[in-house]
Task: structure prediction
Amino acid sequence: MDLFEYQGKQYFARYGIPVSPGGTADTVDEAVAQADRAGYPVVIKAQVQVGGRGKAGGVKLATNADEARLHASNILGLDIKGHVVRRLWIERASDIAKEYYASFTLDRGAKAYLAMVSARGGVEIETVAEEDPDAIARLHIDPAVGLTEADARRLVTEAGIDREAVDGAIGILLNLYRCYVEGDADLVEINPLILTPDGRVHALDAKVTLDDNAAFRHPEWDDFRDIDEFDERERLARSKGLQYVGLDGYVGIIANGAGLAMSTCDVVNQVGGSPANFLDIGGGANAEVMANALEVISSDHKVRAIFINIFGGITRGEEVANGIVTALGRVDIKIPMVIRLDGTNAEEGREILARVESDTVISAPTMLDAARKAVALADPATPQGSF
Ligand code: GDP
Ligand code: MN
Result:
């Protein structure tokens, strides 16, 4: 899970990494109120999960309320690389003497953590890596040993961090490492890490990716989730524990297994349709999960046909079919659907499905055939029952 900057800063603050105090705003009036509270000058920042906001006009300084209003209204609704800004972060502006870079990430190839520190911050690290690779100090860290103070000092020295920032930078690196490991992150990045003219070192930006596999031991992460889902369908799906991603099309998709769900989306596209979602109901495909899946999909008003694509593996065809039949009895679905059932005991399963078949509940033996039928059913120009 990627955090927004303001959430990343909250996370940093828990581990003692200095950040500027501030507040979020979803409207222009709220933004002005937050700016008044923070005290001018303030910086108004687009909260989108993409880098390069500064260059895209998503980060602006305001020295008074009129400027805050102007910038807030320009940034809200702004499209930054396909991400529309719905929330702002407003903090007291910092004076910058120097901009540095610091991050921890996992180097899978080396089976170790990788620390990177550079005195060339404020620009994208990829650009630095390309133009001036020696400007980035790198150190692999054995997870069993951890980051020592000597390691942190070596990184900071090698990166050429200015003398007055050395102690502050070492302290932040040690805390950032704790944040990375104890905080179960896959990536923590500060760019820029700044030195102020009065000699303080401070995180001006925060990029944090949390490791979803560790979510079970972080109930507090739920607080981060709310706003990261503006899609009603995804919210509903998550509340039902489904692996769902909303898409823009009109053919609802239910499949068991992430790979099959992705192929199903591809096949729908291949026959000229457009998937409304990705939905993986996992291996089991029991009645309960199927009913939940049907409920989520039929809550999407764009969906004009549903394509259920199930491959019986350990769960046999007749169990899957019984699950589908029971689910259809539980949820009242008006949208036509095509079911493709294959794999272990597919024949037995299809016999069970035959009992519920109608003009709008159709069974098809192959994936391609089923996709064609689903797309045709979704097309309002196709008369019903023309198969
Ligand atoms: P990004 O472009 O998405 O990485 O957004 P950042 O949060 O890194 O901000 C981009 C740039 O805006 C920084 O590199 C700074 O140069 C500038 N900036 C951000 N906050 C402040 C601030 O408080 N004061 C000043 N003077 N500049 C800032
Ligand atoms: Mn940045």
Observations:
- The first helix runs from residue 5 to 14.
- The chain has 13 helices and 18 strands.
